[in-house]
Known about the structure:
The chain is of the alpha+beta class and 221 residues long. The chain is built from 4 helices and 16 strands. The radius of gyration is 21 Å and the shape is elongated.
Amino acid sequence: MTRYIIANRRAGRTSGPDIAASRHAVTVAMSSITAPIIAQQLPEDPSGRHIVIVDAENTAEIEQRIREAPPNLIIEPEILHYPLSPPPRDLRRAKVAGPSLMAAGASITLNVTGGGAPLGDATVYFYTRSVGGSTNFSEGKTNKNGAVRFTVPAGASPAAAIVAPRATYWPMIARGAAALSAPIECPPLPDSVEKGWSLLRLSAAAAVFQRVLIEPAGHRP
């Protein structure tokens, strides 16, 4: 099952009739889409964006709708990603790992990919947690092969890593030994800045989703 986000386009729609026609495009689209709706946002404010999230088993149907979408309609795959600032709540009190902590530690190599290929020059924040519960972090950059090496302080274990690519890819987080031993994949940003947008998951603890628009200054898709 693949999730898609369906919404009306707002850029360039300033008059009441234009905005109403834009919102109506979502209603028309949903009348012919068979994928079940798992979430919907329809603000009472007539200028608000109508957003629908569907969980599609038949992705071919949605991909066909994307190709046929009228100018008033946005249909995009859902991308879940994590913010850099602030970091997830449980990592906000982390302290920079000093030389004394790093002196007697073991090394760990993290691998980062973007679109399935090694992702170089990405900033990585690596978090460790001690038996007593204190959290420390250190910062590094991936090489051309998408790899970066860190030291795990003695008595601590790897907790998480936040990856901040330079451009064209979403930042991502990996948690736990299993996730950190596998390549951390950063999904590519949408090709079109005008219509690119996604969902941002703030943290598992917060259990909150925030919609984020990727748009040039002064414009909204």
